[in-house]
Structure prediction request, 423 residues.
Amino acid sequence: MASLDDLKKRISSVKSTQKITKAMKMVAAAKLRRAQESAERGRPYSEKMNNIILNLSSGLSDKENAPKLLTGTGEDKVHLCVVMTADRGLCGGFNSNIIKKAKSYFKKLSDNGKTLKIITVGSKGHDQLKRVYKDNIIENISFKESKNANYFDANKVGKIIIEKFENKEFDVCTIFYNQFKNVITQIPQEQQIIPLKMSVDETNKSEESYEFEPDEDEILGNLLPKNISTQIFKAMLENSASEQGSRMSAMDNATRNAGEMVDKLTIEYNRSRQAAITKELIEIISGAESL
Amino acid sequence: MSEEFNLEIVSPEKSFLKKDNVTEVVIPAFEGEMGILKDHISIISFLKPGIIKISSGNEENSFYVDDGIVEFKNNTLSILTSNIFDIKNSDKSKIQDMIKEAEKDLSSDKLDDQKRFIISQKVEVLKSLSLN
Prediction:
């Protein structure tokens, strides 16, 4: 059995770990609120954008000459996957859930004989993927310096993707991120952004016909690159809310586990202290009896 | 009958401005300035760098925009833009920085004519702002 001193040391070390996890939980909770707020504030933009594109593409007269970003290159050979993860760990299954989702998708692609290219956003995803998919990763982007998800960063990613598309480096682009449902549940998502897959929601579709200035094609050509950045930004916002939520529940668990451990260790400590006292008493008594 | 309609300006990060008593908005649409009054036909267009003028009641506000999409429908004007600021409380040094950056972009030779036109437009508008 461990000595009393050892037990004492372990108790105090678990206690200080508990303090750290508790502090991290509280920080994550504060950040989560902010991340959630900004995710909500960002929603009108992407919704409006979606509506306009929907209205535009449904009114598109000449489907053949529509912008490639909408219809795709017509081929399905090279897939670009943008895997968006966090820059920091200690957030439960957040990063590994995205990676798991992405890996199963990668496997499906390679089974079908497609070429795979990967862009990782966030350093944790890169760390986990580089072991197996080293040759497939063409770019690794990380925004460690920026505190919050901002549109400027999203735009940078968007520009890289569009540039690669225009150089015909890939045919289909899919992004992976965690969708924030609530603090306990985050759902890893795969979303195809090139060619654009519209979730056709008939209720939002207006019957009215629009006047376009200049013509539809030109507006779409201008709008679609922006939509890519917007989708990336949306994913970033969802991701940052999910990251904080995930970290919060992970740290909450850790704090609770540490508490349980402290309880167990304290009982053990008290027992062995009691045992030592009893032993000493027996020694004294039997010593006195033998006289 | 009232001549007012709704205006909403949203940026990716937040809803930038919301008004329901706007009488006229002048936007720098791609093919020239466009004034929008109540009961305008439904329209979708996009913006080039320029100044949005909003008249509501006795107030008049001006905003600088880099780019954006405009949609007018059912007497609601929605402007989606990624870079917008109020001219009244704009920061002169920030404008100077933007001019410098735009001029740097302009000197690159990879631009096509349309982009070149847009950026030179941007420089022009920003310069006129920094003079006031």
Q: What stands out?
A: Chain A is about 60% helix and 15% strand. The radius of gyration of chain A is 28 Å. Chain A has a mean pLDDT of 86. Chain A has two domains: 4-22+251-289, 35-247.
